[in-house]
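note to self: the first set is below, dont mix up w the second
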Amino acid sequence: MQPHSTTVHGLLIEQTESGEIQRSVQQFSEDDLPAGEVTVRVDYSSLNYKDALAARGQRGIVKRLPHIPGIDAAGVVLKSSAPKFAEGDAVIVSGYDLGQGHWGAWSDVIRVPAAWLVPLPSGLSLREAMVLGTAGFTAAQCVHALQQNEVTPAAGEVLVTGATGGVGSLAVQLLVKLGYEVVAVTGKTEEHQRLLELGVTRVLDRAALVDDSERPLLSATWAGGVDTVGGKMLTSLLRQTKFAGCVAACGLVGGAKLEMTIYPFLLRGVRLCGVASADCPMPRRLEIWQRLANDWKIEVPPAWIREVSLWQVGDEVDRMLAGQSFGRVVLKLNR
């Protein structure tokens, strides 16, 4: 697309008169875009679990239809009425209301508030930024939470649940880079070897971690953990965490309820840190992205990345919601 074109292509989610949710790539005018001070040409986006739900028209994620999903964008400023950004600036947009209440990044042009933009840090390409996206940003916040709570590599093994997913796989790679002994948990036995190649110490089947008993405490095993699943996975991990350990929690695909006693917190001093990315304050957001571009930069193996077009992402949505996805899906726009 040329910088001043008024034609936009996006994956539109609509509801038919019969109530059916349908999605299709459609062409519309730049004038149809939501309000904002900055217009961005999107070069790359990504697929996150929240995007997959939005692509199904999930209420609670999507506030109104028709809608364009996509909570992550990396691209170049086309127009700006905000003094902080100028035409040609490379930027990242992730979180806030993008792809939820505000039309998202599965579109080759977006218009957003200037307050949502992060200048692309030196050391990251636009594509690398979207290989990370909200998943990598969330994984980095989880690792930061462990460090802030004094879970060091010397403390012992750190567990990562949902280790083949976007957040989980990136958390694994970042922790390994920083010298931690990482134990990965997955329900996908066919992916065990792939996880070992990332440098994890060992791989556990999720059935080996989940304890359905009502015992308030289990054997103290883990120095800390990154939980991307929630539900029984999280409660089992908390009951197995060592004294003064920390668990960073960022997912709920396995359940939103925390059904357990408070004994791990009172008798072992375990700390549970919730990690939220959408409304992360800008100073911390800038710091995390700088670290991901520099001392925390990871080289994600090509086998863990699938690059698709706007016309192909629907198949990846279906795979993710069926529990068949792994690694990162990157959307390339503006072909």
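second set (the one i keep forgetting abt)
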Amino acid sequence: MFIVSTELLCVTWLIVANFVTVPDLGDLRRFVLLICLAALYAELADRIERLRRFTGYVENSVFIEGSSQWCLAAALIFKPGLAGLFVVFVYAHGLIRARRHEATRTYRLVFTGTSAVVAAMAASTVIDTFGVDRMDLGRSLWALLAVGAAYLCYTAVQESLILCVVWLIRRPVRIRQIAIKGNERAMEFATLALGVLLAIAVLHAPYLSPIVVLVVVVLRRSALVHELQEQATRDAKTGLLNAGAWRQDAERELTRAERIDAPVTVLMIDLDHFKKLNDAHGHPAGDAALKAVADCITDALRGYDAVGRFGGEEFVALLAEVGADRAVLIAARICERIRNLPLSHGGTVTASIGAGIGRSGTHDLDELVSVADQALYVAKNAGRDRVHAMHAGLGSSERTEAAG
């Protein structure tokens, strides 16, 4: 109902706006120019955008695509009706390209286009509300304020509509699970900033506008390279560091700890009887549980602690400047949070944790991981759902236990 209502509102507003406003010849020329530039960009960046979507795709999440700069530029250049009509052309071309590549879920692209139409018309209305002549954009402080307000309006309207739909579909525990992340936010900011420059170029120096197209293509390609690098270091199911990337981060932290002679702890976290959960509820439920546990561990630790997935149902974390007593308290807190974690299938899961405590002269990653792994097996044999800590270099005689 929300999707249908939004689309009906969009169509109605688009028809009324184009009925009450007749564009002049200059607007039509700029409209054709912007359409050609948008189509040129779409063809030049088609492979880049498909690779970005493939590498960065997460089910029921928000993906920043490459058409927002054109939509914002149209909102700044044209009246609401023509701005909305331009966005329709852009997304119609997107649908044709999606069919070319046999893309599925066309309804998602349709609603994304709907949200962009509403956002562009709203941003264009903001420009009209400020009473700014569009040919004066970029020439006065008041015009710059109008552009800033239109920028914020476009972002807020489109993002709100998309997030509402994703939330209605997924109903996450926390809204930040589906919110746009920092890197994507920076990319969207840069893309929309180029949209402002594109609008000024089309209005005052049309012959320079193709240069903006090339800049946007280069920007999106750079984003693809960054995302491929990020993809190579992340575990696909949990979003945590993979084993290789975690080891690199951990080695760097150990080097720093040795330099300042600080304690270091490695936590090995293993889910108890995870195979039973997979057998009882299926692998999709198991994958959802892994992601929920990964988020739980990350939330329980500091933002700069290295957290990774070692494989299967085993996780690992390196805690810098954390000694034995504090490590046991942190691990016990993680155990408690995992034990009380609500899972999508309605069941529960517990974890056993082994802590390898490093002291001066024992900052060897392999040794700390080995000691943490030994402590984990002690915790498993002692009844699971508990923490066991062992000091590196002292064997199993010195240890600390915290029952679940």
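remember for set 2: Confidence is low (pLDDT under 50) at residues 57-61, 395-404.
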